[in-house]
Structures are given as structure tokens and as C-alpha cells.
Amino acid sequence: MKRNLISTVGRFAGCAALLLVLVGAAHAQGDKAQGSKTEDKTNERGNPKLGFILAKEHCARCHAIEKFGASPLAIAPPFRDLHLRYPVEDLAESLGEGIRTGHPTMPEFRFDPDQIENFIAYLKTLEQ
After folding, report:
1. pLDDT per residue over 65-87, tens digit each?
2. Distance CA 69, CA 91 (A)
3. How many CA atoms lie within 13 A of 71 on its CB side?
């Protein structure tokens, strides 16, 4: 009887230890999954270098697109100042739908989602 009790307690302790190991492993795996989601979000923010290329191709004719210098077109705000007016992330919808402004010199254009992320990532570098 004493042996059966010791054997039962031993099995229970072994099962409890195994359960703790499994719970700990599952928790660690969950932390890794959370970390990878965070990394994915970071990666989703776009490539500022590609955003700069877009700005150069589509915007530099009128806007100052770098940290210094005046805009070639006086009514076109320098990109480095946009974040002072509103969060640049707010441009995402307009960039996807096509920016329309009150002045006739700005062409209407649309960016695809990757271009929007890249463009906004570039604008964010000008805030620093």
C-alpha cells in the first residue's frame, strides 16, 4: 500500500512537472509569436528609400522633398513640414484614392498600398 502511494505520488509529481514544462513552452511560443507580429508590423511600415524615389519621381517638381531647401512651387508645402500640419499617416487614404487639391497645378495620382507605405515611411524620416 505504501509503495502504491509512493508510486502514485511519483507519477503525479512527474505529470505536474511535465505540465509545467508544456505550459512554459507554450507561453514562450506565444511570446515569440507576439514578437514576430510586432516585427511584421515594423516591416509593414514601408521602405523609406523607395518612398524617397516616389517623392523624387512624382513630387519634387513642385515640393521640397528633403530636409532643406525651398519648394520649387511656392504654394507647395515642403514635405519636411507636413507633420507639423497633421500626422502624415493621415495621407494614406488620400494617396490611395487620389489626391485632389484646390489648385490646378497639382496632378491627380494614386499610389498602390505598398507605395503608400513606402511614401509615408519616407515622410516620417523627415520628422526627425
Report:
1. 999 999 999 999 999 999 999 99
2. 22
3. 14
